[in-house]
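Batch queue: ligand-bound targets. Current item pairs a single chain with pyridoxal-5'-phosphate. No template structures supplied; prediction is de novo from sequence plus SMILES. Inputs echoed for audit trail.
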Amino acid sequence: MSLTLPAALTGPVEEAPFPGAAPHPPLPDLAGFAAHAGTRLRENDRALYDLLARETARQRDTLMMVAASSVADPSVLACEGSVLGNLTAEGYPGNRYHAGCGVADEIERLAIERACAAFGARDAIVQPHSGSSANLAVITALLDPGDTLLGLDLDCGGHLTHGSPASVTGRHYRAHGYRVTPEGLLDYAQIRELALEHRPKLIVCGASAYPRSIDFARFREIADEAGAYLLADISHIAGLVAAGLHPNPVDHAHVTTTSTYKQLYGPRGGLILLGRDARTPGPERGTLAATLRRAVFPFTQGTPDLASVAAKARALDFVAGPGFAEVAKRLADGAQAIAERLLERGFELVTGGTDTHMVLLDLRATGVTGDVAEQALESCGIVVNRNRVPGDTTAVRVTGGLRLGTNTLAARGMDRTAVVECADLVADVLTALRAPGGVLPDPLRERVRARVSRLCAAHPLPGYPL
Ligand SMILES: *Cc1c(COP(=O)(O)O)cnc(C)c1O
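Prediction returned. Tokens below.
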């Protein structure tokens, strides 16, 4: 008996999405689809839609000065909210554990290419779900449980994943911390001494609350002398690094990590970057790059989030593009202007200033605690975060300081005059809190709110037609 195949299975296949299928209809209109998706959410889940709408308005109408925060272009959000979220693509490009990943491979390769271009890296791993996941992958790849690591103390501006006892990195490894000087500066002589004393297998540099630039070359010298790997975590300063406004660690450190939602204006996520040590042998089999790839998958993560990988690719294109130099310059100049203004207004800053996007206010001499300042500022539409400062003896939820950053202000296109006005508004609120009684008078709150509204309206979120 002869089998007759239907015509659809015998026609030309070049144009078909899979063997035997009909030729492709035209590609879908994603812009229309996004509008439809929003309408569908509104119609089917009003409660959730209203919450999202309220949050959108909050972001539009407040001055976001949290140093760890930024604002992604709507094209980044479009990738994050795309059908790529439907895709399961365990493995790496060209080496997945099932079919259907052809487009995913192209997207991930593009993200890798763009990450390398933005940072002058030789290799990049774009799958980490966050900066913390990236750090965990690196640390678990390079260290065995019980091995020693040396990182900046949490108290002095380090990150939880740099060996804090509250994190697995401080629990499963022997973590030692280096500290900043009373002025708040890194002390390379002390770091070297600790490295030679404890002989860590890994030294971590980079910080969450350190306003000055970091000498990565000096860190590498110390790591080489102590026989340690060096991890540079540039989560906070990645944009300045990409723009050449902060030293680039990629060829100094063995490995560099970063979050993508802070200064890269990207999605939630992390990156691992490798420079001149990419092809040096790792601690076990293969190169350092291969070791780290295995450390992300399958060692510490499962399937990648391709929607976030695409969003990273989109953000990295922006960061490597011609418009970013201007944003980066505004980031740095804005922080400088805020620092100068706060000093003029009589406030104290950790290290006395900044080289980055970040200003760390030491409030201890004012008698106002960080938590009270944070709440008072939020009631005026200014969003900041309380932060401990070196030598701080207050509780972690109270704190003696505030951390300010310019990522969102710079993205809104604020020039010097506008950021100085932001600094003045912060100073006005803090000065009122400092007075006897320590409460914010209602008329002042209303006045600051009105000026915040004007600033936000004059500098809309970039590309947000709201
Ligand atoms: C924010 C931050 C991280 C963590 O990033 P997540 O993406 O939030 O996990 C890691 N390291 C440093 C220095 C950071 O500031």
